[in-house]
Amino acid sequence: MIHLVWLVPFLPLLGFLVNGLGRRYLSKSLAGIVGSGAVLAAFVISLLIFLEVKAPGFQAQVVPLFDFISAGSLHIPFAFQVDQLSALFLLIITGVGSLIHIYSTSYMHDESSEGFARYFAYLNLFVFSMLILVLGANYVMMFIGWEGVGLCSYLLIGFWFKNTNYNNAAKKAFIMNRIGDLGFLLGIFTMIVHFGSVSFPEVFEKAAALGEGSKVIPAIAILLFVGAAGKSAQLPLYTWLPDAMAGPTPVSALIHAATMVTAGIYMIARSNILYTLAPCIQTIVAIIGLATAVLAATIALKQDDIKKVLAYSTVSQLGYMFLALGVGAYTTAVFHVMTHAFFKALLFLGSGSVIHAMGGEQNINKMGGLKKYMPVTHITFLIGCLAIAGIPGLSGFFSKDEILAETFISNKIMYGIALLTALMTAFYMFRLYYITFCGKFRGTHEQEHHLHESPAAITIPLIILAVLSVVGGYVGLPEVFGTHSILKEYLAPVFAPSAPFIHEHEHLTHNTEWLLMALSSVLVIITIFFARSWYRNYEDNGEPRTGIAKVLENKWYVDELYDAIIVKPLMMLSRFFEEAIEKSGIDRLVNGVGRGVHWGSQQVRLLQSGQVGFYIFAMVIGMVVLFVIGFLLK
Amino acid sequence: MPVQYYIFLSIALFCIGVMGVLMRRNAIIIFMCVELMLNAVNLLLVAFSKMWADAGRVDAGGAQIFVFFIMVVAAAEVAAGLAIIVMVYRNSQSVDINIMNRLKN
Amino acid sequence: MGMSLQQIVFGVLSIISIISALGVILSKNPVTSVLCLIVTFFTIAGHYIMLNAQFLAVVHIIVYAGAIMVLFLFVIMLMNLNAEIEPQKRNWLKYAGAISGGALLLVLLGALREADVTPLQPGSTDIGLISNLGKTLFSQYVVPFEVSSILFLSAMVGAVVIGKREA
């Protein structure tokens, strides 16, 4: 089955081509079947591959397709690497991807049939790029996928391209990603210069041979992290992700919650040895992850747009994952990627269902009391909220708790902040839940009249994701429960190269672990009750917020800050260049050349008298001059 | 006898031809001056042919063949050129090259 | 100073050819020009003989004096140009032509004055004989020779087409 791995990205590519080229001719149902079918088939193949990979003792396999770049001593094959990490990501991408495709067939049904096919073409292209990203056997292939998902993200955020705000959001996402991509690219170049190779095994081998204390590895690690921060929306490059909610909601679920934004985590987990060998960079990763988590969580507390809350929550959870990577808990980060993919996709799709029912309304102040109209959405959304808040027994609890425990081991202060963030997460999620689903309806009468449960194509993916959100955590049960973590064992070969370099640190006693778990659980439940008492019967009094709430509502004014310190000066600089250099310099030069030639030719034109005698005369004079010149030069 | 003599004679004939082309306006005279220039070159070619033959080169006859072909081309050129001149004369009742300045436009 | 017969003949022929060439460009009457040019061609034929190029000399006389110049004469007579109908050129252009031609003459002379060439031997060579040239022409140069016939044909057709009234 492994040698057929090329089929996994190939099928979505095929779907993209069919839908993209035939978008004028395909009916909606056909486009939906092609789009969803391609990803579903890829999921089946991924599942078969996964079953093969999960056998104990499976060795990573590289499946080369063809030579991509061959220059001098540098050889970059177009090859896929199948190992535990990529197989797991394959499952997440194609699995969640299939559900979201199916969901989209219903959600996007109001589009024109051409727009519908275009949407599925983009979505397929995204899945293809994402699969290339995780399957690539070297950094260049990863970069190809990396750029591909960036492009698809741009295309899908700006899917309704007639709206200028959406286009601006798309451009913002693309440009912010470019900043990170530059870091990634520089990292690849550094690798080529110092290691002469970009393929994973060779780079890791050579890095391991260099060992700790080398200056090259931290340089590469920080450059790669810049790329990861751009793609995974970390400080200071996170502002594009909330704006990216301009895209259709399933896109937010797939790209901006479940898969693409976790590419940065995938990259760092893949390059784990580089980070293990550069502890200072690891610390930076942890601090940035934690800072992002806190900042985004505070902003999420006071957002009124249902998707914005989820977006900041995503940024915050991504920060968590980077925190886990930063403290060296690679498995835990991947675990959280997986559980987060389930519950965040669920929450986004649930919000999509709500938005769909509300006729496009996204402001939670205009909602309320939806639970009696949309039972399935309500229940699944509640499960998602419980999962992300970390209620014991649900998937989010296990992964988040593991991150907290690992953080506790490495740094107590960080643990405190992370715990605070977890509480904030619980608070804003349940604020969102209570405002949206409880109390009484605050929208217009017409909206109330139209409220309805969404069709099966929407509710079935919700139910499946809800089930996964509940049970997904049990693959990574911590040791205190007397079992061992299936996931940790499964992923061990991927992180094996780092193992010799990880300094032995204290293990938590089971008592401490229980204590931490109980502490966070109790605090989370108390927080939820707080949120319940404040927002259960929420009334939008329309008063503008003041003080800190206003600052939070305006996202700490980060966008304004960036605007003032980066965008405005850049605009001024470019305006200066336009006026001083382009218009009065280059333009004048170019026009001057044109005018000079025009003037000169008008003068020289007079020589063309049409008198043959004069022409011959000129010719003879020319000959004389040539002879004289030749004579003088001799 | 130095070859220079022939060179100088050829240059003289050639330059007389050039002067004729420059000074006269009659197309037929100009045409004749062109023939004169061609002949000046032919003369030089033959002189060099002799020079190389004296030096023992067996292929020196090539230059004379070249002259032969120049004559061939000259004959063809005269046939076509005179036809053109006759045509011009028929259209404008003149062979003055100064009236043939339509190239200007 | 002793001058060989060859040099005497060369000198006489050269003087005649230059004088008659000047006659070509200076005479007012086109018919006189044609006659002067014929004289020039004959002197050039004489030079050819001096250079052991007997075949070329004969061809030269036949082609130039016999065919080409007759054609010129014929055209001039046909157009009734034998009178001095040529209007006077503007004088400055005439002088400019003479001066630039003279400049070219001086420059060429200056350039080639010290050309490093071996003197000609007084003895005769046989490469200019008909048999030798004929062999070369019909072996090595047979293709150009045949192609030249096509050239002639096209020139002929061209002349007829151009000369035809209302083509």
Automatic annotation (TrEMBL), chain A:
Chief place of localization: membrane
Membrane topology label: Multi-pass membrane protein
Keyword Transmembrane: yes
Keyword Membrane appears in the UniProt entry: yes
Cited InterPro entries: NADHpl_OxRdtase_5_subgr, ND/Mrp_TM, NU5C-like, Proton_antipo_N
Gene Ontology process terms (BP): ATP synthesis coupled electron transport; electron transport coupled proton transport
Alphabetic keyword roster: Membrane, Transmembrane, Transmembrane helix
NADH:quinone oxidoreductase/Mrp antiporter transmembrane domain: residues covered: 138-424
CC terms in the record's Gene Ontology section: endomembrane system; membrane
Compartment(s): Endomembrane system; Membrane
Transmembrane portions of the chain: 30-50, 86-104, 116-137, 143-161, 182-204, 216-239, 251-269, 275-297, 309-331, 337-358, 379-398, 413-434, 455-477, 514-535, 612-633
Alphabetized PANTHER family for the sequence: NADH-UBIQUINONE OXIDOREDUCTASE CHAIN 5 (PTHR42829)
Protein name: NADH-quinone oxidoreductase subunit L
Organism of this sequence: Chitinophaga pinensis
UniProtKB/TrEMBL annotation, chain B:
NCBIfam families: PRK05715.1-2
Name the UniProt record assigns to this protein: NADH-quinone oxidoreductase subunit K
Family: Belongs to the complex I subunit 4L family.
Organism name: Chitinophaga pinensis
PANTHER family from the UniProt entry: NADH DEHYDROGENASE SUBUNIT 4L-RELATED, NADH-UBIQUINONE OXIDOREDUCTASE SUBUNIT ND4L
Quaternary structure and partners: NDH-1 is composed of 14 different subunits. Subunits NuoA, H, J, K, L, M, N constitute the membrane sector of the complex.
Lineage: Bacteria, Pseudomonadati, Bacteroidota, Chitinophagia, Chitinophagales
Catalyzed reaction equations: a quinone + NADH + 5 H(+)(in) = a quinol + NAD(+) + 4 H(+)(out)
UniProt main location, coarse: membrane
Any one Gene Ontology molecular-function term assigned to this protein's record: quinone binding
Alphabetized UniProt keyword annotations: Cell membrane, Membrane, NAD, Oxidoreductase, Quinone, Translocase, Transmembrane, Transmembrane helix, Transport
Record-annotated membrane-spanning stretches: 6-22, 29-53, 65-89
Annotated GO CC locations: NADH dehydrogenase complex; plasma membrane
Root EC class: translocase
Function: NDH-1 shuttles electrons from NADH, via FMN and iron-sulfur (Fe-S) centers, to quinones in the respiratory chain. The immediate electron acceptor for the enzyme in this species is believed to be a menaquinone. Couples the redox reaction to proton translocation (for every two electrons transferred, four hydrogen ions are translocated across the cytoplasmic membrane), and thus conserves the redox energy in a proton gradient.
Compartments in which it is found: Cell membrane; Membrane
EC number: 7.1.1.-
Family matches, as Gene3D superfamilies: 1.10.287.3510
